[in-house]
Amino acid sequence: MRFFRPVIIFLVLALCSCKGGDKDWHEPQSEADLSGLSVTSVSGTLYDIELSKRPDIKKVLFKSTADCLEALDRGMVDVYVDDDDTFTEPELKRQKLKIAFRGGMELPTAFAFQKGSELRDQFNLFLDSLNRDGSVERIRKFWANPEGVPFETIPEIETYTEGEFLRIGTASMREPNSYVANGVWVGFEVELVKRFAASLKRPVIITHFDVPSLIFGLQTGNLDIMMGSITVTEERKRNIDFSEPYEIKHPAFYVIDRESETHHMAFFSRIGDSFYQNLFLDKRWSYIIRGLQKTLDLTMLSVLFGSLLGILLCAMSRSRKKWMKDFVSVYALLMHGLPMLVLLLFMFYVVFSGSSINALFVAVVAFSLNFTSSASGIFSSSIDAIPKGQTEAGLALGFTKIGTFTNIVLPQAIQKGLSSFKGACIGLLKNTSIVGYIGVLDLTKASDLIRSRTFDAFVPLLLISVVYLILAWAIGKILDLALKKS
Amino acid sequence: MITVEHLNKKYIEKDGKLTTVLKDVNCEINKGDVISIIGPSGTGKSTFLRSLNMLEIPSGGRILYKGEDITAKGYPLDQLRRKVGMVFQQFNLFPHMSVLENVKFAPVKLLGMSDEDATKEAMSMLRKVGMAEKADSMPGSLSGGQQQRVEIARCLAMKPEVILFDEPTSALDPSMVAEVLSVMRQLAAEKMTMLIVTHKMKFARDVSNRIFFMNQGVIYEEGSPQQIFGNPVHSATKAFVQGIMKLSFDVTNDDFDFFDMNSQMSAFSTKYGFSDKRDKIIHVTEEMTQVVLQSYRPLHIVLSYTEMTGDVAVAFMIKDLHQSPLLNKDIDELAMTMVRGMSREVIEEPTKLGYRIKVVL
Ligand SMILES: Nc1ncnc2c1ncn2[C@@H]1O[C@H](COP(=O)(O)OP(=O)(O)O)[C@@H](O)[C@H]1O
Ligand SMILES: [Mg+2]
User: Fold this and answer.
1) ipTM score of the complex?
2) Is the pTM of this model over 0.90?
């Protein structure tokens, strides 16, 4: 029972988050009606800037659509503004949303490239040729199916495995432009870039990032193309180049649909529906499996390399050479002082900037470097915790210095340091949840992906919480077992 | 078997000062010798002992083990240490191994003995020190005395030619000292070559054939137990073996803090267990200082306690005086009679520095 209590509290909180309607609500019908209301949008978007021009509107910003919707659902805000193609019809229904009105502004959508890149011109030529034979229109129609596109009907596009990767970053995980179905990137934009890559006979790799990271990625040369319903704005044009727009969107002002039937759906059928949406539709559970794989790879490789380097560092800190000791202290200072996320971003955007090295590798490097410092600290203090008398006893019996260390000090130090080491490994596991920032699709990022499609925080978070807890428990067990065997 | 020539050891302290722990140690240790090393603490006994198996690297001089210079660069010290066993004050048993494993570990790893043979051997060593019954216990569950006996068994299992003991009983409860000493007595009877740093004078006298008295970084005096304990050449040796403890004061004028002196004397007598004589000491000192020797300043007062005999004495020393002040006509006879009445003996003697009156209580 005690174990279930947090889960129950979680459920109750989730329940309480459904909001009752308030009486004097007047649905806005035009931009003028927004005066006095609180309006949310995703930070860093065009709407962020546009809303700032209206001091009579209370602006509330969040990092993702899912968060904005959560705020809307909880009644923290009245209106959510975003592109009018943000949701499909069924999604609007499921999210109990409706479009109150559309704005007049025109929002051209295009692909973005590094400033001055030739790739943009090549892409424009390519787009132009597709436009002329009507292919763009045909492809758009295919993906614009409001009921969703059945996976089996998605056309296969020729892919290349040889050659330099075309590195594509997308800001969208949404139908119809770019999203993952059955573990494959699909959608209108995805089809266009895949066809483009095929015309260049280059393989593609697609990664999801938020918009600021994407822009930075283009600028630093980590990415070749940025997409995902990217709106062309004057400000962005200063930093990156856009292709010809392929679509014009309008802003839409979303409000809670108070007459919606789902709004009154029973709790349990909602939970059931939620599990279906989050896990089974489009095999979404497969993200979790793949995310788990990445999280495990990252954790295990970092523990492995970090421990090996940690042994080296520990040996250096115990050497008589002063420069070695100094190196270790400076290294430890650096690793202790730098937030893991900053180190990770530094590695990705600065150290490995422009190289086509895969993000998981960069993450393994960053986490190994960080773990090296904690591991060497743990090794060092465990060895120090063994009384000097043990070494003396070993030497006096006739062991060599090394023999004394390996036969007498080390076995005791391992016993002493094991629980700290376990803690460090579990800490590392938990820390890996930030790798989504550089586009590694780990467990947390997988739940983000699901969330950005279903706008439901509860089920994906609950699921990965359980997975993390099990992993943490398993790490402890595995280390205990490994110790018993040796 | 071991020859020590001009051995010295210096440390550079953190503040850059050079401390000399061993000045010039010379000695010859023969097979079958049981040598007790005694001396005040901090005089380098441990440093000397630990030099013999090169746990301390000497700063100068040579140590020859069976004619080979073990201080030479590149000498295989691990080989040496297999033949020179050591038992520490803080019985350093390996806490993660059972008693039996502790004893057979080194023979298996270093002498290449089979597990079976090593176990047999270890059990016989444990039997020898009376610890066979605890073979499967973990060291942490044993008393200090038991741990120290296991440590001796562990050392014996390597079949050493010499064993060095560094205060093997100092960390033990008084009740456990005897069991360890009796194991060592047995080893001595078996003609094991041993060097023992110890404070147990009676044990040293009984068990050794030679005594080294170490003082100020050298072997200050060396001899048979009879000589060192019965008839030492140097006064420092005598003071040490008799266990003379001293507390001294200088009365220069009448502003002297007599209350402070009284309380120090009182604490001293409690510390060494003769507080029954405390009142007498204070009374005698008062009469002598303030009445009998009232006009003699400066006056040097020494309260001494001899551990071996249990004698307590207060000595009064007047500098540069060559004849007894008691012969003086002005002396307060009544007070002096009182002092004599309270004491066992009053010894008057001229010394190099002046005249001394020693009141033995
Ligand atoms: N590593 C060291 N650095 C500086 N001084 C030391 C060191 N080891 C021992 N000494 C000094 O050497 C002196 C003798 O020590 P030790 O051999 O242990 O004396 P004993 O065993 O006779 O009490 C002590 O005064 C001690 O402070
Ligand atoms: Mg000592």
Assistant:
1) 0.79
2) no
